[in-house]
Amino acid sequence: MFSKFATLNPDFIDKLPQTSFTIKSNPTVAIDPLTGLQTTTYSTETETTGYVGSWRQDQIASSNGKLTLESLKVVLTTQVSVSDILEISSSDYRIDVLEIKQGYFVLGVNPL
Question: How far apart are CA 50 and CA 53, in angstroms?
Fold first, then answer.
């Protein structure tokens, strides 16, 4: 999808401001028998840091609808899966774009 961004400069990436957030993995969904409300809990929560920023207009346009103006760009070295949820500043985000480049995970995440 982002073939024109085939390489990353690790020296540049390491100098970007880092944000702390949580990666939530291994969800379990339950329905409360009294209220009928669905709740999701995660058996694994990993604290990590990474760069959190925004996507450029041309990247959004070439994403086939996976990215919007609300999408965040996350660059980190911690391994993630598309089924994981990221909690950034007390808000949950789903991973809609996941690319691995030179040991970095480049994510496009959208609010739940």
Answer: 10
